[in-house]
Amino acid sequence: MSERKIKLQIKDMTKKYDNGDGVEHINLDIYEGEIVTFLGPSGCGKTTILRTIGGFLDVTSGDITVDGQSIIGMPPEKRPTAMVFQSYNLWPHMTIYENLAFGLKLRKVPKAEINADVKKYLDLVSMPGCEKKYPGQLSGGQQQRIAIARSLMLKPSLLLLDEPFSALDAKIRQQMREELKKIQQDLGITVIFVTHDQEEAMSLSHRIVVMNKGKFEQTGTPAEIYDKPATLHVASFIGEMNFLKKDGKTIAVRPEDLTVTEGSGGQFDATVRTVMLLGHYVVMTAQHGDDVIKCYINRELSEKLKEGDRVSLTVGKHTVF
Amino acid sequence: MFKMLNPRRFYHAVGRKKFLEFLLLAAFILFFYGPMLNMLMLAFANEYTAPAVLPQQWGFKWWSYVFSQNSLVSSIVQSFIVAIVTTAVSMVLCIPAAYSIARFKYRGRKIFMLSFLLTNAFPKLGIYTSIAVLFYRYGLMGTYAGVVIIHMINSMMFMVWLPASAFRSVHRQQEEAARDVGAGPVRTFFKITLPMAMPGIAVATLYTFLGSMEEAQGTLLVGMAKVQTMPVAMYGIVLDSSAVQIGAVFAILLIIPSALMIFLMRKYIGPEAISGGFKMK
Question: Which residues of B fall within a CB distance of 8 Å from A86?
Fold first, then answer.
């Protein structure tokens, strides 16, 4: 992996707002052709970092380079980045064609080439033939597709996406994710994605940066983040996690990594609280001391268990904090 | 058929509630359109004496009279010059101010906005008199520049508040997206922000133009009869009671540009656009 080309490098970057919020000492390398997601709760600084890369915020100190060139101090229009915002990306007084062609016209691209490009990229985002429509005539999901197409048409070094799907409803969001991933694979473009939706981050990214309170908590592949959370915050933020206390330590274990057997005598004894059928699997919660533990069990076992039964839990894959 | 016009029949045919509503509407229409109808009638009356319902003689006598009087024709020309200059200058001055109020947070922003209200809160004549003192010193009395300044004092509130709210309704992301695809700040303003704020600006421009067309008090005082706009000329006509018809002709002439502008901008004029301008944020 070491011979991969570094696309974006953030070196000891600090951005402080007047009220003291912000991000400090950020270091990150992003490689060519990668999708890297900044994941964290709102106000954790993920959008701040994205906006400093896009040129919409100045940095307090440190450096950001794209392809080895520093982009600090450049205005957004001079940067080799393209950004898609959460909403209000399009200009309502222009048709879709004019929206898409705006950036190319500024670059003095010949008209025939613009026409061909508009058609090509509308096909790419599966919106062919809507050149003459106005943004107001499109749904939210369609508008975001157009916004992504507009950014891609400028052939940016780096595509920045600031929670582009968060205003869409769940079903369309999932579809957009798949399409984005496919487009990224086809074009081989480098993407930085910001989201607070862990499912979105897990499904899209090559690497995830989990953030909390202006700091990087963990950087790694989705599997690393899920299987080996570096901190308690990461463990609780990503997926479902049980925290069991034993000998002054906390054992973090996923519901699917707990083996449930009837009767007592296992690692942890517990009492069944609820058994809920959720389609192809069953969620059981059990009381152990003051803690409520969640486990996934199969249908066969669930039919034998009822509230108040004694069960014993055996911990499989886990992390100790 | 005429039987139905009998009020009793009408009353029983439509019911009491509808009948009362009809009466109210009729009174309303008479109240609003009666004077205008009367004015229209007078403008085309060659001869008319008060108690009669209809003029004794119809015709265009007063129209040709108005257009034959050089002073009256020149007042029409002057009105348009003053209104157009006032609108243009206040656009140049107020639109940047409106943009700054909408986009930047700075100390004294609210005071700045309220200051435009203040000129409308004091008795106008008092302000005009004290301005006149200054104008004498700077030689602005009886000049176009002086009159335009007086008109701008009245229009500034509209010209700052309405566009400011229009600019505020343009989302920052929409400007940032334009910067992102390669437009500089100036191009972003003229290609994105200004076109999107146009409805609000159009309404403000309309108010400024119409306000300037009908401003009389300040023009009379500062113009000192050297700058004579249509409303000022009307003072003289009204005082000369022998020719009410000239007043009517003038009123119709004054209505034409207003009606034309309102018709052209009807798309933009609505209660929302107007009330939107008066939010303090």
Answer: 173
